[in-house]
């Protein structure tokens, strides 16, 4: 298995769009992402996307962002989104993306890694747990779009 | 004739034997069967030692009255995780069938019975870890287990039984 993890650039924006859309499989709202939005995301300081390429083909990504923990006076790393395309799941690609993100957050002096995921997404919980990311915080949110 | 029954507290010794059988799945040259005492001294022992722990359940297969296989699940927590650890409330499956009793569908029947036990208890999922090259992988695929992660030489698989809204997931694959 020839797996490469690298930073996405604006040239990858179009390839990322269908992967982003795949996060919403089973959800009634279509994705609002297009290549221009992805390119703008990548341009923002502190934001980035790790791209996973299997035999040279984009098969997954991890979007990340840095914020600041005011109390600690240090950056925090957030895993914003993680997706591995359905056909190649279970091969450790998600774990490889998470491990690379964690390594970079650590290197950048982050005091914490944060992730929000569905409590019933056990595959994601397995992958994050293996990277030492766990806990019993709750995520509170309010949607401004119709979720039903 | 093959019969499947629930594992009870009297089956502790047999489950340890089956654990050693499971650890000896690789019968290629250079991979001799693992001795029970070696398995019990190694990192796999926690899958069966002290049977039954709270939350343990499983099934035993008998062929013409002789015990030939077992499948069971146990909760292993994050501070002592199994190879296929997913979450504290997701128990991990172990399974083995004696070599001379294979090829009769006993593994599938044991797995089905164990999944039924998990459903009866309202468990939301079961997990397992299967090494590369282990032919048991195909019965896990057929039962609906899905690969969710990999380590160096093994795959972690997950069978979701109930989602958080309390909806039962579709049953066995058609």
Strand percent estimate of chain A: 25-35%
Structural class of chain A: alpha+beta
List the secondary-structure elements of chain B in sequence, H or E.
EHHEEEHEHEE
The top-level CATH class of chain B is: Alpha Beta
Mass-distribution shape of chain A: globular
Quickly count the domains of chain B.
Answer: 1
The CATH architecture of chain A is: 3-Layer(aba) Sandwich
Q: Specify the helix fraction band of chain B.
A: 10-25%
Largest interface: A-B, 17 and 21 residues
Strand content of chain B: 25-35%
For the biggest sheet of chain A, the summary is: 5 strands, mixed
Overall pLDDT score of chain B: 92
Distance between the termini of chain A: 40 Å
Distance between the termini of chain B: 25 Å
CATH architecture assignment of chain B: 3-Layer(aba) Sandwich
Question: What is the fourth-level CATH superfamily of chain B?
Answer: Gcn5-related N-acetyltransferase (GNAT)
Q: Approximately how much helix is present in the residues of chain A?
A: 25-40%
How would you characterize this protein structure?
The complex is a heterodimer of chains A (148) and B (174). Chain A is α+β, with helices and mostly antiparallel strands. Chain A has one domain: Aminopeptidase (3-Layer(aba) Sandwich). Chain A contains 4 helices and 5 strands, in the order βααβββαβα. In chain A, α1 (13-22) packs across α2 (35-43). The N and C termini of chain A lie far apart (40 Å). Chain B has 4 helices and 7 strands; from the N terminus they run βααβββαβαββ. Chain B has helices spanning 12-23, 36-40, 106-120, 137-143; strands spanning 2-6, 57-63, 66-74, 92-97, 125-131, 146-150, 154-160. In chain B, the strands form 2 sheets. A 4-stranded antiparallel sheet of chain B has the order 1-2-3-4, sandwiched between helices. A 3-stranded antiparallel sheet of chain B has the order 5-7-6, covered by helices on one side. The radius of gyration of chain B is 15 Å and the shape is globular.
